[in-house]
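Researcher: I'd like a structural prediction for the single chain below. Treat it as a standalone chain; there are no partners to consider.
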Amino acid sequence: MIDHMLPGNSYSAELCMALGSKARVFLATSHDMKSSDLEVKCERLYPILFNTSHGNRSVLSYIEYLIGLVRLTVNIALNSYDVVHIQTFKKYAIEMPLYAALKKIGLIGTMAFTVHNVVQHEAQAGEAEAYGRFYEKCDVLVVHNGLSKAELEQSLSSKAPAATIMPHGCYSKRPAKKAEKRDPVCFLSLGVMRKNKGIDILLQAAALLEPSYRKRCRIVIAGAKDKNNSTDYLELSRQLSVESFVLVRPGFVEENDLENLHQEADYCVFPYLNIYGSGALLMAYSYKKPVIASDIPAFVEETDSGRTGYLFRSGDVGSLAEVIRKSINACDDEYENRVKAVEELRLEKYNWDKSSDILIDSYKKVLFR
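Model: Treating it as a single chain, here is the predicted structure.
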């Protein structure tokens, strides 16, 4: 398995922990990854890839990046893996042709790829076409929900394999304390502040709350600012006169702070306008937090039609404000039922053990056909 994002993103580490009891797993990742960073249950960890430690555009970083790819190529050539599963790219325009060439000459037998985003964030010109050509070279394509499968297969050529739905597991290393609703009720919106996240809708909904509700809630909005988003949410909160109970924190959220924010929250809020799937929502589930989410297809699916919290009409400020009121007024039994629903859905669907079974089956269908 190949993932440039570790140790910053633990997705592949979690997946490898589940796969490790069922297959021999080798994980190639960033050179600064250590076994002690995460409990990685795999046959061997190869920290051979270089990220841009000297700045994205420096000559040294580019040379290191190419050295990492050479190391990876040699590793693949020497080990004759049954499956090479690619999770992420650092530079897709270089790595896609590399993997395609390795497959063409027989150094990669079965090639799998996880489509984390059907439409890439901040996609460049020609990127969709490049991904489409790469999909044709793959033997296994993995997505995380039914919406992503339907959207992806609309654009796939007949040469590409059908997509396999493997639900994104919850993060197992998150210490979920006993969930109890507090007073004031705390709502958390966490993640990169992109335009599609609907943060302005959340702020406008907050502005509709009556003084009696403002005294009973606290809203925290935290995350790094997307470079393509010019909206100043801190200034917007001032213009809407909600800063007395709404805290806007632009900037990168450190790991320790990530945990503290989730532990302090009663609900996690996702007022997104569009998304194919949300790792942040699965993070909320990892902390056993009920969610408030827009009724876009991905969230209808991933909340089991609202069983794990509350859904509101996407883009509707009044609908979100009403759901916030409802969640503030929810009795303890209702809140506990939402928490219980999160726990049940984690066990039923969003756990890495079941996801790894699905992945192993998808490999076997290619290997033994």
